[in-house]
Amino acid sequence: MTRPRPLGPRDDLADSVRVVGEFGVIARVLARSGSARVAEVGPGDDAAVLRVPDGRVVATTDVLVEGRHFRRDWSSAEDVGHKAAAANLADVAAMGGVATALLVGLACPADTPTSWLEGVAAGMAAECAPLGAAVVGGDTVASAPDSGSIVLSVTALGDLGGRAPVLRSGARPGDVLAVTGRLGWSACGLAVLRRGFSSPLAVVTAHRRPTPPYAAGPVAADAGATAMCDVSDGLLADAGHLAADSGVVVDVDRAALVRATLEPPGPLQQVAAALGADPLAWVLTGGEDHALLATFPPSGTLPHGWAAIGRVEEGEPGVTVSGEPAADVAVAVGAGRTGHVHFG
């Protein structure tokens, strides 16, 4: 592993929000924001106007707080933009929809370099572009003088394309539990960064810029997925939400999960060996990869890219791993808890 390079100065006052001003910042940011296919009226008015082909709108919001969700000494501005967009775009995909637009609320100190904000906008635009989405509006305010932190509140809007939304509450006993996308990579990258290193680059990059499988959400919906969610808080934690909403037991098959996520061996095992950790802990409880977790009828064939990792059973709602309580397994692999707990 190698240590990260020291950062250069970040306080060019001539380029700060204080000097450039609110509307100067907005103009610079919008110049990098791209355009949304569904926008009839884009940024610049009191509100955007979007075409809604399906007649319904998928809507979701996430808030990213500096120091908790990102650090400017670990991630570039573009990284933060990618990550902020991905967290929301993945939620739309988990409903079986395709994202169409983002709204962004920003609170930042007055000495924030506008070049940093332009970088965030560029990262968001790059994450949205393959979906035909873009930032269509938002708001900027000065954060509290004593906080010094940047806060991004991102709302994503999406289109279902005529599909029924796939909810967390539709899993039924006998269904197959399946996953697509990475698990544990972001958590592994975070463990590396916390120890002052910046390699293996693959896991560090996965933490800075998650790569959710957006297209797999609508594909799963078309294939008859009965329930779905994105893995933002950890596999066990998010499976727990699905289990509770559906009133079922979700049993993760440990051997199948290992085959799907840790074979053949890769950077997770490399980092785990160096840190004396169990890579399964990251896979089971690590969040922010934004993989998709879904249940499918037992008689069907899983869509391409999805791997079966368990099944749905009758019983008191909860999550087990090969029959063992999820909380006990989390402790056994060294994670301590089943996933991220807000205010925990």
- Global geometry: globular
Number of domains: 2
Biggest sheet details: 7 strands, mixed
Gap between N and C termini, in Å? 31 Å
Our count of helices gives 12
CATH topology-level fold name of the largest domain:
Phosphoribosyl-aminoimidazole Synthetase, Chain A, domain 2
Overall pLDDT, averaged?
91
Q: Strands of the largest sheet, in order across it?
A: 8-10-7-11-9-12-13
Fraction of residues in helix: 25-40%
- Kindly state the number of beta strands: 13
How do the strands and helices of this protein lay out in sequence?
Layout: H1 17-20, H2 22-30, E1 39-41, E2 49-50, E3 58-65, H3 77-94, E4 98-108, H4 114-128, E5 135-142, E6 151-159, E7 176-180, H5 185-194, H6 201-208, H7 216-222, E8 227-231, H8 235-246, E9 249-252, H9 254-261, H10 267-275, H11 279-285, E10 291-296, E11 307-313, E12 318-321, E13 324-325, H12 326-332
Parallel strand pairs: 4-5, 9-12
Antiparallel strand pairs: 1-2, 3-6, 4-6, 7-10, 7-11, 8-10, 9-11, 12-13
Helix pairs in contact: 2-4, 3-4, 5-6, 5-11
Model description:
- The protein folds into two domains: 20-159, PurM-like, N-terminal domain (60s Ribosomal Protein L30, Chain: A), CATH 3.30.1330.10; 168-332, PurM-like C-terminal domain (Phosphoribosyl-aminoimidazole Synthetase, Chain A, domain 2).
- The protein is an alpha+beta fold and 344 residues long.
- The model is unreliable at 1-11 (pLDDT under 50).
- The protein is built from twelve helices and 13 strands.
- The protein has a seven-stranded mixed sheet.
- The radius of gyration is 21 Å and the shape is globular.
- Helix 3 packs parallel to helix 4 and helix 5 crosses helix 6 (201-208).
- It starts with 16 loop residues before the first helix and ends in a 12-residue tail after the last helix.
- The relative contact order is 0.15.
- Strand 4, helix 4 and strand 5 (135-142) form a beta-alpha-beta unit.
- It is 33% helix and 22% strand.
- It has helices at 17-20, 22-30, 77-94, 114-128, 185-194, 201-208, 216-222, 235-246, 254-261, 267-275, 279-285, 326-332, and strands at 39-41, 49-50, 58-65, 98-108, 135-142, 151-159, 176-180, 227-231, 249-252, 291-296, 307-313, 318-321, 324-325.
- Mg(2+) 1 binds at residues 61-62, 139.
- Substrate binds at residues 69, 288.
- ATP binds at residues 138-139, 168, 232.
